[in-house]
Automatic annotation (TrEMBL):
Alphabetically ordered keywords of this record: Glycoprotein, Lysosome, Membrane, Signal, Transmembrane, Transmembrane helix
Transmembrane segments: 319-344
Function per UniProt: Required to protect lysosomal transporter MFSD1 from lysosomal proteolysis and for MFSD1 lysosomal localization.
Species of the source: Carlito syrichta
Any one GO CC term of the record: lysosomal membrane
Protein family: Belongs to the GLMP family.
Signal peptide: 1-35
Localization per record: Lysosome membrane
Lineage: Eukaryota, Metazoa, Chordata, Craniata, Vertebrata
Claim: Glycoprotein is one of the keywords in the record: yes
Topology in membrane: Single-pass type I membrane protein
Name of the protein described by the UniProt record: Glycosylated lysosomal membrane protein
Domain of life assignment: Eukaryota
Length: 356
């Protein structure tokens, strides 16, 4: 399969729950596009030589016969465009004057255009907040009375060049609300940390999601933001490209409230690559009204994987296999030992000769 797959995990006592998996925009893998065991990964903040610095991060992951292009940006709401090609020589072209214009169509292209085998996008549009004070059902939808959402297009973001780390292949977009009359973000921030990988494995830091060379990881962190209620739950509104008249189906494991409905969301880089498109939106809320929740430590972390192909599947570790072998093997040995004792005792009784 080829598509956009999200493996999501909240970490820590303030996290949303064990796991959530969303399979979005899945389609048959195009001929000639195969997964790669390893890739040569490079990160570049693409400069606008004629204007002020712009947050446009290009991750290029080159394999033997293919290239993955991840274009992350905070021009407008934070967004990512994912393009997979069947050539190790494909490149990203940016027309800054067109990209920053009111009509950005065509400002972002991957060349040669006929090498593109798959493309999609995600846009993180709004930070949601709910008052769950009077909600006793942890599965309630919505999880509480909604407060007015924070539009992420109204945030000011740091210069990601300062956070670019070529060793860990990561960079961080950190944002604060520009017009903040309640000073909710005076000592807090919302961050999007992006990390790419050259091979399969797990990062050193929790939640240590299993990844491949065909994926990159996004960690969303909300910290220090003052909630508007004593038991506020937070969430994200996320938009993805609609494929035809219907929204893509979702596969969900465990329970995080979500909903989606057709909508249109404007992101400069998404429109620059795809033109005007219809979007499907869904909400992810973190935590439950019964706790734990953001109110415990004013900290929330959520991670996901974005890439092509089937999501990586966790295999049983040697430790777990060893525990299972002991747990399952010990009763077997006990039954076998008990059988031998019974056989031996039966033989002793059968050889017994009575004396009159």
């Amino acid at each position: 399969m080829c598509g956009c797959a999200l493996r999501c995990w909240g970490w820590g006592p303030w996290a949303p729950g064990p796991t959530l998996f969303l399979g979005l925009l899945l389609s048959a893998a195009p001929f000639g596009l195969h997964g790669e065991e390893t890739r040569q990964v490079s990160l570049e903040v693409i400069p606008d030589w004629e204007g002020p610095p712009q947050n446009l991060l290009h991750i290029r992951a080159v394999g033997t016969n293919s290239t993955l292009h991840y274009v992350w940006s905070s021009l407008g709401p934070p967004a990512v465009v994912l393009v997979a090609t069947n050539s190790p020589y494909s490149t990203l072209s940016v027309n800054w004057s067109r990209l920053l214009s009111p009509e950005p169509d065509g400002g972002l292209t991957v060349l040669p255009e006929d090498s593109v085998q798959f493309s999609s996008a995600l846009v993180f549009t709004r930070l949601l907040e709910f008052d769950s004070t009077n909600v006793s059902d942890p599965a309630a939808d919505p999880p509480g009375k909604p407060y007015p959402p924070y539009s992420l297009a109204d945030f000011s973001w740091n210069n990601i060049t300062n956070s670019l780390d070529p060793v860990s292949l990561s960079s961080t977009f950190q944002g604060h609300l520009v017009n903040d009359p309640t000073r909710a973000f005076a000592n807090g921030s919302l961050s999007f940390r992006v990390q790419a990988f050259s091979r399969s494995g797990r990062p050193a830091q929790p939640p240590r999601l299993l990844h491949t060379a065909d994926t990159c990881q996004l960690e969303v962190v909300l910290v220090g933001v003052l909630p508007r209620g004593n038991r506020s739950l937070f969430g994200l509104e996320v938009a993805t490209l609609g494929q035809g008249p219907d929204c893509p189906s979702m596969q969900q494991q465990h329970s995080i409230d979500d909903e989606y409905a057709p909508a249109v969301f404007q992101s400069p880089i998404v429109r620059a690559f795809f033109g005007s498109q219809n979007f499907c939106a869904f909400n992810l809320t973190f935590g439950a009204s019964t706790g734990p929740g953001y109110w415990d430590q004013h900290y929330l972390s959520w991670s996901m994987l974005l890439g092509v192909g089937s999501p990586p599947v966790d295999a049983l570790s040697p430790l777990v296999l060893g525990i299972m072998a002991v747990a399952l093997g010990a009763p077997g040995l006990m039954l076998l030992g008990g059988g031998l004792v019974l056989l031996l005792r039966h033989k002793q009784y059968s050889e017994y000769q009575s004396i009159n």
